[in-house]
Each structure stands twice: as C-alpha cells, then as structure tokens.
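FAQ: What does the model actually see?

It sees only this:
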Amino acid sequence: MLQAEFEIEGVDWQKEDARQAALVASGILDTPPEPAYDTITRLAAEYFRADAATIGFVDASRVWIKSHWGQAIRELPRKDSLFDLMLAENGPLVVADIAAHPQRERLLMRVRAHNAASFVCVPIRSFDGRILGSLAVFSKKPSHKIKPEAIRSLEGLADMVSSQLELRRLRSTLTEVKKAPRRAHHIASAANQDWPRPADLHHALDRGQFVLYYQPEVDLATRKIVGLEALIRWNHPERGLVAPLDFIPLAEETGMILPIGDWGIGEACSQIQKWCQEDPLHASMRVGVNLSASQFSREGLADHVETLLVQFGISSRQLGLEMTESSIIPNMNVAMEVLGSLRRLGVSLLMDDFGTGYSSLSYLHSFPFDVLKIDRSFVCRMTEGDQPLQIVRTIVELARVLGMDVVAEGIETYEQYRLLREMGCRFGQGFLFARPMSAEAVTQLLRLPGRVLPEPAPAQLACA
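And it is asked to produce this:
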C-alpha cells in the first residue's frame, strides 16, 4: 500500500482540474465545524487508539483540515504532504514504524505537524470516485502489525465522510445552478482571451516558470538593507519576463491566485534559508510577501505558514506578510481571527499601500499591524506642495503614536529621501536605492560591507 520509493509523477492537469471541480461542487472548503465530521474523527482515533486523527480536503496548494481529534491544525501546505503520496497510490498509505522505514526522513517531514511515529491514511472520495481528501490517524508510538481489517474499518469511516459530502453536494445544487450563468461568463471570458489562458497559468506553475524578484528596504539613516519585498514575475520561455499586471488579474478570476500565492510564500521561505546559510547575520532581515485576498480569507493560514517556517528552519520574525486594506475589510471577523493567529505566530504584519483605502484611519487601530507602507502615490507627490507633504507627515506621526514602523514606498528622488528623513520616517524602498532584482543579484548586494548601500546621488529622477 506504500511504495518503497515515493516517486510522484508530474501532475496530470486534466485529472487534477476534474478533481478540484468535484471538490468545489462539494462545497466543503472553509466551512464551519460540523458534529458529523468530528464524530468520525473521534471514532477513528478511538478505534486505532491513536493520538490524533484528521479529516482533510485538498485544493491546489493546501490541505485544509475539516475536523481533527487531538492536536488542532487548520491547514498545511499540500507540497510534501501525505495526500500527494496517497493520490499517487490511489489508495491507503500505511506505515507502522516510520523510524524503520527506508524513506524515514521524507516521511518524518510529512508528519512533522503530528509528531507521529506511525500512521494510516485512507482516501475520501467523491460520488464519482475522485479523491478529494483523506482520513488519517497518527500515533506517537510505532504500531505492531496493522491488520487489513483495521484498514477496512477506517475506509468504512471514510465512506461515511463521502456520504456526508454527497448530501452536501445535493443540497447545494440549486444554489450552484443560480450562480452558474455568472461563473460561466467569467470562465468563458478568461478562456477566450488570447493570452494568457487558465491552462497557461497551470503550466507555468507546474514547470517552475514563476520567479520572485526582491526589492531592498533600507534604513534611511544608515542605508543598511534591513529587509526585502518579494515580487512575483513570470519568466516565460518565449515572452521573457512577464509583469504581474499581465497575469495576476486572470489568476484572481480563475482561482489560480491561491496556489500561485502559496508558492510565493514557500519560495520566499526557501530563499531566506539560503541567505541565512550563506551568512547567519542575514537572519536579522525580514522578507515581505504579498498576500492575496483569497489567501487571507483562510482561517488556517497561520498553520500553513508555521509548517513552512518549520520545514525551512527559519524564524517567524524573518517573514513578513503584506496585505492591502481591500483584502481585509470585506470580512472583518475572519480578518481579526487570521491576523490574531499570525501575530501569535510571530510573523510581521504589514499594511501595504496605506492611505489608498476608503477607511484606513477608521479601522487601523483594530488591526495588529507592525508596519505601515506608505503608498508610492503619496511619496511621489511630496515635492509638489504642502498638502501632499502633510499627508505623508501625518501618516508617519500616526504610525509613531500607534507604535508601528513606517516604510515609504516608491522613493525615486534625492529630495524625497531628504524630506522623509527629516520628518522621521525610518525605512524606505524605491528605485533611488535599488530596483527589484533576482535572488542572485540580491545575494551579491548583501555581500556589501554591513549590507550598506552607497549614498544616493542628489540628481533627481522623474516619478513613474
């Protein structure tokens, strides 16, 4: 039931799209707790005398935990999860003693969140047989021989979950029919445009064509690089480097923004690890990653992020998550829960493009942000008169009163740099210091003595 070697073939996107369509049809993702599912996890754990049991459903980038018994986990990254191993097997995964298994290290990575020494994982299928998730039990001690009848019992409980899914699907049919015309219009409009199309985004993610560029954030008083903002680009083999505005709207419309965004967090964590391995002093830097509204609306985001931090062996203070006001306001209750869980994790929270929202001042005191990033449109107009200058000065003072740091975005002229320093803005980023660049170019920049950039020339640059 478990291959000696964990060889997972490349994703068949046609099958994966059909699987995810069945998952969407079930309406199960990000739903409130339900007693029926909790009863099943409890029964599974008691039957196996396990330390933990989970029911999880899997979209393109995450394992979302619908129900748990034992350790509370809401979400895990799909990459390096048991689910993909089970999907490749198209059946149960059974390991009675991880420590004695030839693929010990790889298995330990996959069950790290559960601190398990043995596990059994069986598929949860849709009414037409597609694997949507898994029912798994985990034990902190090795098991003796796990009998076939015990596995069949666990599969019976998984069938109960499948029955619940089918009932949910049938109940939601009328609602889905009402939404169908609008959804069909969006999908058709996305599919009919010349380029890119939804399949292009799938292929780009599968083939590793997305890359992160990084723009330094500097201490304006010392010009020392204190952080970096990660910015996604599409390195297309024929079209070259594609800007985000040319593919992010389509990703948002088709739902691909979720796996692409999650890839971005994982890639940034991997790069932080590499920089720290080169020079442990780089651990003082923070790398900020932009969150989409879809990512931010997931209550299990903190679990997902925590797993990545553990996987790459980096500190939570080294990762910053940037979000705009527009991704927060639509669902304030979820926003407060997600922000609170991220804050408890120790990740830095940055409000991006501050000043452009319709209610920034009204809600700012309610959110546990660490950093405000002044939108470049305000910084660009600072030298045009007293009013734009006063707006920036007010934001800097507001942040000081609230105990937050401030990063001024889009600094392009020496005069802007001078004014920001005079008004007490501590941090900034912009073309005056450095443009977004590849990870390799940043690595060279970080080798400057003390990570200090040269003094900018007083010559003016025009604002874009």
